Amino acid sequence: MRRTNSTPAARTKHQQALQCIAQxxxxxxxxxxxxxxxxxxTARFLQAGGAEPEGGGEPGAEEWCRTxxxxxxxxxxxxxxxxxxxxxxxxxxxxxxxxxxxxxxxxS
Length: 108
Description:
- The protein is mainly alpha-helical and 108 residues long.
- The protein is built from four helices and no strands.
- It has one domain (8-50, 58-101).
- The chain has helices spanning 8-32, 38-47, 61-75, 80-101.
C-alpha cells in the first residue's frame, strides 16, 4: 500500500480527530473508574466534539447517554464480566434519573 502526500488541511483534520478520540477515551476511563457520573461524562463527551448525527437527525441526551454506555462497554471488552456490570450500573443510573426527572438534561 502506497501512502499519498496529504494536504496540511487533511493532516490537521486527522490530528483533530485523533485528539477527539483521545479525549473521549479519557472521559470513558474516568466514568469506568468512578470519577465521573454518567450525565457529567456524557456532557464532557459531547463537548469533546467530533459527534456526527446518525440517521434522521441529532440524537437527544438520553441517546447520547446510551452512546457513552456503549463506549464504556467497548472499553472493557477484554473483561466481559466487568463490561456487563459497568453497563448495567450505568443503565440503572440512567433509568433512575429518568424516573425522577422524566427526561435527561445534561449539565452544561
